[in-house]
Amino acid sequence: SLNVACGRSDSFTDSDGTSWTGDGTFATLGVPAVVNDTAGLPESLTHLRWFITRTCYYFDQITVGSSVNVTTNFYYGNFDGKDSPPQFQVQYDGNPEMTISTGSETVTYSLTYKALSATVNICFGVPIDDFTNTAFVNTIQVEGSGVNSVLLNSASNTALVISGKKKKGKAIIAVPVVIVIFLVVAGVTVFLLVSRQRNMARLAIQQGAYQ
Q1: Strands 55-59, 19-22: pairing kind
Q2: Could you list the residue ranges that cross the membrane (predicted)?
Q3: CATH number for the domain including 117?
Q4: Count of alpha carbons within 13 Å of 178, Cβ hemisphere only?
Q5: 185 in a domain, yes or no?
Q6: pLDDT in tens, 63-88
Q7: In terms of CB atoms within 10 Å, which of 5, 47, 155, 203 comes out highest?
C-alpha cells in the first residue's frame, strides 16, 4: 500500500503507526497549503494540495485484474482564508465522477474496484466553466498488488476531454493556449499572403490593361 500526504515534502509516521510519504518530492503541479484550523486534527490532514486545472495522480505497476482500494480525504480547514468550502469532482480511473462537497468536517471517499490496467489514475477538478470552486486533496491511500511509484501530472499541457462536460452532444475539447496562439498567428499569416497575392493579381491585370 502507499499513503500520500499531499502538500508536504517530508515523510513521517503518525500516532497510529501509519507511514506517510509527502508528495512534494515529485509533484510539479498544484499548490501546497496548510489548513488554518488544526486543533485535534491528525497530522496527515494538516496539509493539502490544491489545483487550478484538472490534475491526476498516477500510480503505476499495478497488477492488472487485481483488487484496488483507493481512499482520498478532504479537509478544508479554511486553507484559503475565504471561509467558503468548495465543491469539486473526483474520479478514480474510468469509474463515474464523484462530487465532493466539503465543509467543516473531513470528507472521505473510498472505492474498491478491479484494476483494468497497470496504472491507476486519480483525478481532481472542477467543470471548465466553474470559476468559483477549487479542487484540493489532503491524503491519498492506494492499496493493491504491485502499488509502487507516483507521478503527478496534468492533461493541461495537451489537448484533453473534460469529463462530464458536453455541449450539443459532443465532448468539449480544451486546447492549450500555445496551440491557439499558433493557429491564430498561422491564420493571420495565411490571410496576409492571400491578400498580397490578390493585390499582385489586380496589379498585373491593371498593367495589362494599359499595355
Answers
A1: unpaired
A2: 171-194
A3: 2.60.120.430
A4: 4
A5: no
A6: 888 999 999 999 999 999 999 999 99
A7: 5
